[in-house]
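Why this split exists: single-chain examples teach little about how molecules sit against one another. For that reason, every record in the complexes split bundles all components of an assembly together and asks for one structure covering all of them. Below is a record exactly as it appears in the raw files.
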Amino acid sequence: SYELTQPSSVSVSPGQTTSITCSGDKLGDKYACWYQQRPGQSPVVVIYQDNKRPSGIPERFSGSNSGNTATLTISGTQAMDEADYYCQAWDSSTANVIFGGGTKLTVL
Amino acid sequence: QVQLVESGGGVVQPGGSLRLSCAASGFIFSNYGMHWVRQAPGKGLEWVAFIRSHGSNKYYAGSVRGRFTISRDNSENTLYMQMNSLRAEDTAVYYCAKDVSGVTVGYFEYWGQGTLVTVSS
């Protein structure tokens, strides 16, 4: 079955740039998206179709996807960005939605 | 504005059944695919099932196939999940989510607040 792998945790200082990776076999051939989930809240999409930002999502969030890795980049990280982040893709061969295991972003 | 309100969660014994509902408003429900996604306590997100806009196609995660059934009533703007033969590992918050597409699987554009299902004796 198809799997997406993320680091379990990432730390960043306020104002710095951080990246969260998501790895899967030929992930670049699929669309990747990213969700932010703050404690006690429902997830919110921050990046869809690899690199598109929904309205209302700050410009500091960006995405890329190539080869076997999708990357979520947060520039000028703020304290409010501290959350769990999940990557997601659609595996057409199994007709399944796949989530990565999630990355806890800590803003120190 | 889009609203998704789940209901029907609760405590059920192993082997029991439960039916979840998701009342949708703020968009043309019959035009969009819908999903159920769950999250076990302290764990990550797990996709459960998807149904196309007119209910013609349904997809399930392997962990629930044969036990769970997703359905929808477009006249009532409501999504359902019938859960049978429940196991302890089905304990989770269950979210309904609106897909951005009506036919293919796109991404989860909106999420409800979730309803907690606890399977325990």
